[in-house]
Amino acid sequence: MKINAKKWMAGVMAGAMVVMTLSGCSKTAEGKKETAMGRYMEEEINLPDGAGYLADLQKKSDGTLRLTSMDTNSMTYTIYSSDDGKDWKQEEFPMDVNSGALQPNGGDLYLNMSPNGEIMAREVCYDDSTMAASNFYHFIGMDGTLTDLTIHVPGKETEGNEINGVLFSKNGTLYVTDYHNILYKIDKATGEIAETFDGGGEEIRVSAVVGNQCILVTDSQVLRYDSESGEQIKSDKVLTDQVLQSMGERSDSYGGLPVISFTEDKDGGLFYGCSDGVYYHADGGSVCEQIIDGELTSLASPTFGISKMIQLDDGSFLIAGLENGETSKLLRYTYDAKTPTVPDQELKVYSLEDQSFLRQAISLFQKNHPDTYINLEIGVTGEDGVTREDALRTLNTDILAGKGPDVLIMDGMPINSYIQKNMLLDITNVVKKIKKSDGMLESVTDAYKTDGKLYAVPAKFYVPMIEGDGDTVTNFAGNLKNLADRVEALKAENPQQSVLLRMSAEELLCELFYADSANWVQKDGSISEDKVRDFLTQTDRLYKTIVQNDAENSEYTSNYSTEMSNTRDTIARYIMGLVTGEGKIGIGNLGSIMNFATVTSAQEKMPEAGLQYGLLDGGEKKSFVPSVIVGINSGTKQEKLAASFVETVLGGETGTQGDYLLSANKKALDTVKEMPWGANGTDEIGGMAISSEDGTMVEFLIKKPSKEDMGSLTSMLESLDSPCINDAAIVDPVMEQGTAYLDGEQSLEDTVTNIMQKINLYLNE
């Protein structure tokens, strides 16, 4: 049976500036193939010295660019100007934008510019007790004249609705958006609402002001209005279909920015940018053309979000955005007629499941290798009914036929079997190179070391953790039987009080599997039946304490997914329950420094509970969950290029992407530990108000872990010694049969028998 896995081509062939066939080549008179030429090339523009957060970017009517930048330490603004976006000079504005006149109430300041040079200053003040926001508005004219405005949008600010964005039309008309993305035209003299643009009853996903158009994107349509008359512009089905396709199910790009950013063409057409790239649509045209392929640029990176896009007079584009939700970037895209439309080389990469970290690595690799595009094949998309077993069968058939991928991301794959069958290349030299330059956590990178050689290496990992009272963490967290004894004893002392936080059978099995399964593997590679039986026995004991507590509660909705890579970084979810008093012990997996901050902040929030954290071990081994396990197909014909990609995946630059992930690269791990956290030099990175079971609101501040906690985490990570079982053919029957057992649908012995039959049949193939 032929299984068609979904393929994501990084080299989609498109372009408005060149004419080509769909193959990207044309034939000459002599019958030779001629490569189609012409592609937009990406260049990162250095921001001005001293520039911090890029608050706004505007193109004035004379073509001059203006940029406002905020120093996140001093919270002061600087305005710069440039003719082409490369050489920025500080601009002397008629009024001091950092004067107390713009912050009379001591709030946070936000500046937005109009194309004709005016500035709208929005001061936001928060009530310390309720966290409700109040907005104050100050309008600065081109001559520096300051006007205080009072602007109110429907719905009281204390009820959660407020202004969250300021926009200008081409001629300087002022607009604001609220938390529902409804667009309001504002009278600059009075602050009153002159016009309201809503979604006609539909939820608005993106609202924008482009030239003299107001654009609202809902789930089913793209609404356009004339910004001056307020009249609706005729619906354009071609534009609507393409925009909605580009948006898909995404509600926000990284950092909470809109999924799509619009800009205008001098002839009345529209450009829009998104993670797919940049598209152009002529007003009333029959097509929406992709002129920049996002997969060949930084736009496709899951950690990059677009905040502003501008087309310059020479036809190039400036795109401003945030990397990792905090670092401002300014990218320039210039058309190069001498660069092949489609990169010369192709590298095939295969992964059972889609992963954000992998896409970050691909984006970085292609940025550094513009002559190569990555053909990423995802085995299990969830869209076509293909199971992991189906996908692996097809993959193995392709590899044996010499049609396999060059690089394998081996999460969920039978790694040891691939090694034994000589299906993987030795990548020891690649790892040695990175160890020399960056350092590596050898307990992680050497997880699958065989006969002194490395064939598969994890780029990142997760750690099974527990947080609770000191006695539990110190004396009972190293063995599942001991943990079950402890939880049962605590439950007996306080029958009406939760001990373990509420979980479904699948969730509990998954969390404990990560902690315990490394102990199941015997010297000959087989799985110990006794270990499996004990795992199920102890998990059932723990589950019964949860079921007892939930017997009279409403039905619990599980967040578990069989795609385990999507459920691994779970510890923060359960720690919240400790803060609200819903439980005494939280277990889960830690995959980032950001979530470690949640763990340490819970201790600070609850000093009376004497909380401690530590590794959750199922037995003798200190296990971890390997992730983005990279290897090279021994049948590849592009060994050098594949090795270069592996180096990118395991390298320090990729390892610092995302939400402070735990990377096997020591340099990357050290970097994320030292990254700036809160603004204005504070250690606070955020906070939330959590509702407890009795309805009480509990405020919870999340702060950067102390040096002592960072040191403790480092010691924990360095103590790891064994990967948990990764093979989907073993994981899946344990989850499936174990859930039936915990839910009382079959006996322990039947469960063990069913699991072992499936595992042994698989191992003996």
Mean pLDDT: 85
How many individual helices? Answer: 18
How widely separated are the two ends? 19 Å
Fraction in beta strands: 25-35%
> Largest beta sheet, briefly?
9 strands, mixed
The gyration radius over C-alpha positions equals 28 Å
Bulk shape: globular
Structural class: alpha+beta
Helix content: 25-40%
Number of strands: 37
What does this structure look like?
This protein is an alpha+beta fold. Among the domains are: 93-232, Lipocalin, CATH 2.40.128; 350-459 and 628-655, Periplasmic binding protein-like II (D-Maltodextrin-Binding Protein, domain 2, 3-Layer(aba) Sandwich); 460-627 and 663-720, no CATH class. 26% of the residues lie in helices and 29% in strands. The protein has 18 helices and 37 strands. Strands 1, 28, 29, 30, 31, 32, 33, 34 and 37 form a nine-stranded mixed β-sheet that branches. β25 and β26 (317-323) form a beta hairpin.
List the helices and strands and how they pair.
Layout: E1 6-9, E2 25-27, E3 33-35, E4 37-44, E5 53-59, E6 65-70, E7 77-82, E8 89-90, E9 108-113, E10 119-126, E11 133-140, E12 146-149, E13 163-168, E14 174-178, E15 183-186, E16 193-197, E17 204-210, E18 213-218, E19 222-226, E20 232-233, H1 237-247, E21 261-264, E22 270-274, E23 277-281, E24 289-293, E25 304-311, E26 317-323, E27 327-340, E28 345-351, H2 356-368, E29 372-378, H3 388-400, E30 407-409, H4 415-420, H5 428-437, H6 442-445, E31 457-469, H7 470-475, H8 480-493, H9 505-516, H10 529-550, H11 571-579, E32 586-590, H12 593-605, E33 611-615, E34 623-632, H13 639-650, H14 652-655, H15 666-674, E35 684-691, E36 697-703, H16 707-718, E37 722-723, H17 728-742, H18 748-763
Parallel strand pairs: 28-29, 28-30, 34-37
Antiparallel strand pairs: 1-29, 2-3, 4-27, 5-6, 6-7, 7-8, 9-10, 10-11, 11-12, 13-14, 14-15, 15-16, 17-18, 18-19, 19-20, 21-22, 22-23, 23-24, 25-26, 26-27, 30-34, 31-32, 31-33, 31-34, 35-36
